[in-house]
Structures are given as C-alpha cells and as structure tokens.
Amino acid sequence: xxxxxxxxxxxxxxxLNMIQGEVDPTQVHKSLQRIxxxxxxxxxxxxxxxIQVALSKKSPYVKTAHRVSGLLMANHTSIQFLxxxxxxxxxxxxxRGAFLDQYRxxxxxxxxSLQEFDNARDVVT
Length: 125
Fold this sequence. Notes:
There is one protein chain. Helix content is 41%, strand content 20%. By secondary structure, the protein is α+β, with helices and mostly antiparallel strands. Helix 1 (25-38) links the parallel strand 1 (12-21) and strand 2 (51-56). The mean pLDDT is 86.
C-alpha cells in the first residue's frame, strides 16, 4: 500500500528514485551530492543517508510527452501520524463494537474472544 504523508516533520529512512528517459548519470550524481551536502533531505541520525537511484531508458511501447519521468518512493518516520489516525478510528469503532459480527461468526478462527485485535493494537502502539 502506498500513502502520502507530510514530510516537514520527521526524517527519511530511505529513498528510492526511479528515473526513466534521457538522463545524464553525471547530472544525477551531482544532484545527489548537493542533496547530501546541503542536507536538503533530513535523514535518520542512527543510519546512513540511503538514497538509491535507478535509471532506465524510455519504453519504446509507451508514448509520453515528456523527455524524462520519475517516481520517488520513500520510507519516512512521518508514517507514525497515519498509524495514530488509524488507531484512533479503530478505538472508536471497537468501543462501539462496530463491524464485529462477522468476526464473531468465525469461531474456528477467533473462538469466543477477539483478543487478536487487541494484540494487534498493542503492537502498533
């Protein structure tokens, strides 16, 4: 699953940048050096600044209007805000007992209790 979260607060854990099209690898290398030197991206203090770049040629089968296209995927500590939001929603639903009927019918899996949900909640917090 991919999600979007604000990255102003927090740190990057790792970045993967995929670039497709006519790109000079030396320009990419210089850009990465500038990012590291100017500390444009804030990385975790306990590990190396992991920026991976994958360059590929343009597909002969897909016509695009642009010379270069790219995709950035990143692991960021701001995902914690999304987890908190999901956890709050879960707690509200669990307090009301909403949507639990189908799980209670599955006695083979859950037995008499829904303890697995509580265990999963404890893992996330």
